[in-house]
Amino acid sequence: MMISSPCVVSLTWRLEDAQGALIDELAEPMEFLVGGEDLLPKVEETLMGQTAGFEAQLHLEPEQAFGDYDAQLVFFESRDIFPKEVSEGMQFEGPPEGSTTPDLPKEAIYIVTEVYDTHVVLDGNHPLAGIALRLSFKVLDVRTATTEEIEQGSVGEAPFVLGMGTPPNETLH
User: Fold this and answer.
1) Which of 6, 89, 100, 123 is close enough to 35 for a disulfide, judged by CB 3.0 to 4.6 Å?
2) In what order do the strands lie in the sheet with 22-34?
3) Global pTM?
């Protein structure tokens, strides 16, 4: 089957920074929806018209991957609006309740980067923002997407939350 939108591809990959340091490796095949929210546009563009067995190596500049680093998405909040157990690596979907910083994007995931006695530092940038990447991947299989996959825009959990890993605690609110 030829890759076109929408369909599901099964991929393995190796993701490195521009200097070759390993960021993520997917040795076991994982499925992704082409034409949804699962893959970066440059990856989808490269996949179009290909079939199982296709391999590629891409160089992705920040604007083709997770965007440029935005210093305005790093901010301080008072320690007292956070749970007692707040720690580095915790994530918040949207600004934390009680935030006093105006005009923060509501859809961003904010990561606690530092915790002090009086304040907490939050970063709304993707951990790979501002980084050029090298992605090598192989297509192992291609199949028709189900109606449910097309409607939700994904085969499952978004795979390109790369670099965040598993937070020490649950994502808050």
Assistant:
1) 6
2) 22-34, 7-17, 133-143, 55-60
3) 0.76
Fold observed for domain 71-123 = Thrombin, subunit H (2.40.10)
How far apart, in whole angstroms, are the C-alpha atoms of residue 79 and residue 83? 9
CA–CA separation, 64 vs 133, rounded Å? 9
- Give yes or no for residue 50 having a pLDDT over 50: yes
**Residue 17 pairs with which residues in a beta bridge?**
133
Residue among 160, 162, 119, 169 at smallest CA distance from 37: 160
Which has more confidence, 132 or 163?
A: 132
Residue 130: both structure tokens together: 């501002």
Q: Do residues 87 and 77 lie in contact, with contact meaning Cβ atoms separated by under 8 Å?
A: no
Rounded Cα distance, 125 and 25, in Å: 22
Q: Where are the domains of the chain?
A: 7-66+130-152, 71-123
Residue with token string 């076109």: 4
Mark out the alpha helices in the chain (DSSP H runs): 41-47, 147-152
